[in-house]
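Before a colleague's protein record goes any further, I have to sign it off. Would you go through it and say whether the fold makes sense for this chain? Take the sequence as given and treat only the tokens as open to question. The record follows directly below this note.
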Amino acid sequence: MIRAYLFLTVFTPLTFLFAASAILCSLFDASGRAYAFHARLWARLSLALAGTRVHIRGTEHLPDGPVIFMSNHQSNFDILSLLANLPRQINWIAKKELFDIPVFGPSMRRGGYIPLDRSDGRKALKSMDNAARIIREGKSVVMFPEGTRSSDTQLLPFKRGGFLLALKAGVPVVPITINGSGRVNPAGRTRIYRGIITITLHPPLTPATTGSRTSVETALMEQVRNYIASALEH
């Protein structure tokens, strides 16, 4: 518990400092590279602060061009681990409410992160169309198809939104399996433990171009789930 409080004492002001700095840099760099550099450095410093190491494998599977990364979700350290180690400039699709947080929210907008408004069906569909357009223009994004953190290593049911987005964007989906983050920072708990997190990138999956939308979504969802589960430690 003491480790967690010490971590948060430094992590919280560090986060707002980097968010503010990233906003300033983004005013002079429309490419997003300066913002991505800030995000990666923030994540690496935060992991080091927690005494956490990350190993990544399977980077040879990454195709050229934009992709949608879909990962299991065990703890808040998943975000830090992916930001620090994915060999690609990435954007995040996050719930709209996060963009209302002072400093942090505006920083996310300047960084090109994509808000998803789930307050009603029409707004959600409009958000999805906007996200698909941004991805087709060359941005790679990260999503957690479970929608929330799992309290153990078992995969939760997947939500269909990410797979609808994959069909709309027409880009490959790269499944990711994360192991160890749930032990570093168990879901629903404040405690932080030293440990090693492993990220496994699986071969890309291209959505089928024939068949009904529902059947294509379902088939892609099953493929992604099978890949993630295949490397999941229990």
About this structure: The chain has a mean pLDDT of 88.
